[in-house]
Design goal:
Helices cover 0% and strands 39% of the residues. The chain contains no helices and 29 strands. It has a 4-stranded mixed sheet with strand order 12-19-18-15, with no helix packed on it. The chain has a 3-stranded antiparallel sheet with strand order 3-7-6, with no helix packed on it. A hairpin with a 4-residue loop joins strand 24 and strand 25. The relative contact order is 0.11.
Length: 294
């Protein structure tokens, strides 16, 4: 009895790629016998074939595709293996810089918005540094100090997509200004008693420091925040300053001038007015009271 004839299988579908994960192609092969060809693919984690001979790439691992012809009474069974590998797709993040800000208290918060043209499975993760300038919680960044806030947006790889290229916009947080309001000292007339100095600032965190440029006229106690006048009828020039720090600019110096006017004096005669006198009468006493000058 003669043996069965051999036959060969030839793929007409090009399996050289490139292919991408989740891509679907139609498998086509022919047998030299003219008999129908069936298909299979392994491993299941890499690829699969459906009843319509559609091959789906499931991951970026190696896929082995087999085209088989089962034979019949005349032809012996045969098969042909081919391999193919799909690559993950690239994905890109769009993350525009939120714009520069000026430091403020209460602290400023900014909502971060970024989109991806890729995975709907892996989220975009935001980060921020340094911690002295900014901090991210979820999709919100809090600006904690002046400086450059370095933002990051990342998206991890998944089954279909590679990890996105990190986006790194920045927010420049400028120092805030601070303004002094220096109230005019209420000193209606000359006195040597220490008088309070009162000033307020838009940033109460930095102390206001008082001084004078006229030490011959007045002195300032920066601890007690008082001024003491030394001489009369001269200008006492007072200064109020506030230093800056890592978050605030130096405040614009404020000036107040006190003119140390002399105190007014009043002379008062005694209640009993002297009687009229005739020229040549003897001396007589006059009783008066006066000011503090002596």
């Amino acid at each position: 009895t003669a043996g069965k004839k051999t036959q060969t299988v030839t793929f007409t579908t090009a399996l050289t790629g490139p292919f991408s994960v989740d891509q679907v192609i139609t498998l086509e092969a022919t047998a030299s016998s003219g008999l129908p060809v069936t298909y299979s693919a392994i491993p299941a984690s890499a690829c699969s074939v459906d009843v319509d001979n559609k091959l789906t790439f499931i991951s970026d691992t190696l896929c082995t595709i087999t085209a088989s012809q089962a034979g019949d009474a005349k032809y012996a069974a045969t098969s042909l293996n081919r391999t193919a590998t799909a690559a993950k797709k690239a994905q890109a993040i769009t993350f525009a810089a939120p714009g520069d800000r000026t430091f403020a208290e209460p602290l400023i918060t900014v909502d971060l918005v970024a989109t991806s043209d890729g995975s709907k499975v892996t989220p975009i993760i935001f980060g921020a540094s340094p911690a002295t300038v900014c901090e991210v919680v979820g999709k919100t960044v809090t600006l904690k100090g002046a400086g450059t806030c370095n933002l990051t947006a990342d998206q991890a790889a998944d089954r279909v997509y590679t990890a996105a290229v990190q986006k790194k916009p920045t927010i420049v947080v400028a120092k805030a200004s601070q303004t002094i309001v220096f109230n005019p000292p209420n000193i209606p007339s000359f006195t040597t008693a220490p008088q309070p100095l009162i000033a307020n600032s838009s940033n109460p965190g930095n102390p206001i420091v008082f001084s004078t440029t006229t030490l011959s006229v007045c002195t300032v106690n920066p601890v007690d925040r008082t001024v003491t006048l030394k001489i009369e009828s001269s200008d006492c020039i007072l200064k109020a300053n506030q230093v800056g720090n890592s978050n605030y600019l130096v405040a614009l110096e404020q000036t107040q001038i006190i003119n140390t006017r002399k105190l007014a004096q009043t002379i008062t005669f005694a209640a009993t007015t002297p009687t009229d006198k005739i020229f040549g009468d003897g001396a007589f006493d006059v009783f008066v009271s006066g000011g503090d000058s002596g």
